[in-house]
Specification:
alpha/beta; five-stranded parallel β-sheet; 7 helices; globular
């Protein structure tokens, strides 16, 4: 996300980087909060929505769909809020979203993560299924130093064919 944000900034695009609230929770040792995906969703949504008045683009590596994914993956059925999926999807659909799933070919960075490398790879596969089941378009790319350029070119192409504003490039 940071590489794309940098490229967009130097190309004089009105863009802001939206930090990942969940990562901040891990770094603060607040793992107990992950049972409250509605709270994580609400905070990530707040961070994104506050940009609507002044920016054309928001870039994040924590799109608002992730709390729903983790809610469905990790919360027992009896503890789930039945209204949460509809709320998340309604908010997600309010914006034009360009979604990219980066496939790691570099070393795994464990800092700021709740899962180890093996778990993360399994989650990547589950996430593909989650997105596919909801007909959410996602472009899969190999993570490399050139990936931000590829994504920027894709965003420019899509913006040429779209009349919507404030896309969220979720990585």
């Amino acid at each position: 996300a940071a590489g794309l944000f940098f490229l967009m900034k130097i190309n004089k695009m009105r863009v802001e980087l939206v930090n990942e609230f969940a990562k901040e929770l891990v770094l603060e040792g607040r793992d107990n909060i992950f049972g409250e995906q509605n709270y994580i969703f609400a905070e990530q949504l707040r961070r994104q929505r506050r940009l609507e008045a002044g920016y054309e683009f928001a870039v994040t590596d924590s799109p608002i769909l992730l709390p729903l994914f983790y809610e469905l993956r990790e919360t027992p059925m009896e503890n789930r809020n039945p209204n949460f999926p509809g709320l998340v999807m309604k908010e997600f659909e309010k914006s034009t979203n360009f979604n990219y799933l980066l496939c790691r070919k570099h070393g795994f960075e464990a800092v700021g993560r709740r899962h180890d490398e093996g778990q993360s790879l399994a989650i990547d596969g589950e996430l593909r299924g989650f997105l596919s089941a909801r007909n959410i378009e996602v472009m899969e790319l190999e993570a490399s130093p050139r990936t931000p350029e590829t994504i920027l070119a894709d965003i420019r192409r899509r913006m040429d064919t779209s009349n919507n504003s404030l896309p969220f490039a979720g990585l």
